[in-house]
Amino acid sequence: MRLFTPEAMRVADARAVELGYPSMLLMEAAGRAVAEAALAVWPAARRYVVVAGKGNNGGDGLVAARWLLLWGREVRVFAPEGHRGDATLARAALEVHQSVEPIEALDLRGAEVVVDALFGTGLSRPLEGEWAERVARINAAGAPVLAVDVPSGLPYEPHVRADLTVALAGLKPAHVFYPERSTCGRIALADIGMPRALLEPRELPELLEPEAMRALLPARPGDAHKGSVGRVLVVGGAPSYTGAPALAALGAYRAGAGLVTVAYPRDAAGVEPPLEAVRLPVARWQDARLAEARAEAVAVGMGGGEGGGAAARAALRLRKPTLLDADALYPEVLKAYAEAALPTVITPHPGEAARLLDQSPAAVAAEPLAHARELARRYRTVAVLKGGPTVICEPGRCAVNTTGNPAMATGGMGDVLSGVIAALLAAGLEPWDAARLGVYLHGLAGDAVARVGLVARDVAEALPGARARLARGQVRPYWDWGLLGG
User: Fold this and answer.
1) What is the pLDDT of residues 397-434, one digit of tens each?
2) Overall fold of domain 6-204
3) Interhelix angle for 368-379 vs 331-340, to 10°?
C-alpha cells in the first residue's frame, strides 16, 4: 500500500476516469462506505446531521445521507448551493427523498452523530469567517463526529476533531503522521472500487503492512544453532551511558540473534549486558580484540559519548553490515562508510538528523519524508528517521512505519531498535529490508505493551511475542475495515 498525497489521489481519480471508470461510481461507493461505517460504530444512533460542502467531499456526504435515510435513520442535511460535478448528481438523488437545508441554518441540536463532509484534502489555506465558525460549532456539538476522508480544515487550524475518519481509497498523510492523526480519531480505510493498478504507484512512499513484513521474517531452520542465525557485535557505552549498549544487546537477542557480543570501554564499568551476552571491555577502540569478535553485523554508537566517532571508525575496519546510531552519527563518519560502500543503516532522531543536515530539529520534524530522503541521498545509506511515525528511506524509495505509539517516547527505546535492526542484518537481510522489518516489529512490540510508564525493556521483552503474532498472520493494521465494530 502507498501513502497518497492529495495531488497523487487526484491524479489516480482522473486516471480511473480516463480508463473508463465512471467517477460517479467512486462517489457512490465512498458515500455508501461512510454510511456503513457510521452504522457499524454507532448502531444505536437514530438521528444524524450531515454537513456538506460544494465539492466531491460534500458529494460523498450527500450520498451517505441518502443511504442513511434508506436504512431508516433520521437525517438532516445542511449544504450550500452551487454544487459542482458529481456532487450535483448526488444532491439531486438525495432530494428525491428529502430536501437539503441551507448551510446558513445549520442546527446541530439533537444530533446523535455529525457527519463532517465540508472539505476534503484540497485546502490551500486556513478556514476563516463563517466556515471557521461552522467547524467550531461541529466541535462543540457534543455528538460524535465522523469525518469523510479527512477532518475538515486540516492541515490548518481551525479543523474538525473527529471520532472516526473514513479514509477513501488510500491513506493520506493526515491518517499517518502526528499531530494530524490524533485529530482523525479511529481510522477506517474504505475500498471504493478504485482500479487496483492505480493504488500502487511506485514513486509514492510504501506503508508498511503486516503481510509484506511477514514475508521478510528470516527463516529459522530445524537445525539452527547460535552461530547460524546471526551474531551481532554491539559497540558503545560510556561512563554516563552504560545502559544503552545493554539495551541494544537485549533488543538483538529478543529479535532473534544467536549470539551478541558487547564491546565497551573498560572505564565504563557500569555496563551490564544481558547474562547471555559476551563481554568485551577494551582499553581503546583500536584494540585488536575488536576485530576478533565474530559477528555478521555490527551496531555502533549507543551511549558512545564523546568516543562514538572513534568507535564507528574502528568498526568500519571490520567491513560488516553496520548500524550507526546516536553518538556515531557524524557527517565525516557517514561519508567514510559511504566511500567504503558498506551496507549501512543509520537511525537518527530529528535532533541528530538536524545536525547531519544542518537544519533545525523543528524543520526536520515538520517534514520527515523530505529530510529522510535527503539523509539517504547525501550519505548513500538506508536512513531510519525516528518519529511519529518513523520514516525509512534509501536512495530512490521510502517507506513509512504503521506501528508504535506515543507511550514509546522514553529513554532507551532507540537502543532497543538498534539491536533489533542489527539482529536482522546479522540474519542476512539487506539493509532496506532489515530496517523496515526492524522498525515494524519494534513498534508492534510497543503496541502490545502500550501504557503510560512504558520502559524500553518492556518493548524488548515483547518482541518475541510480536514476531510470533506476525508470523502466524494475527496482526491487523489500525485502519483495517474489519475492526470497525470492535
Assistant:
1) 999 999 999 999 999 999 999 999 999 999 999 999 99
2) Rossmann fold (3.40.50)
3) 60
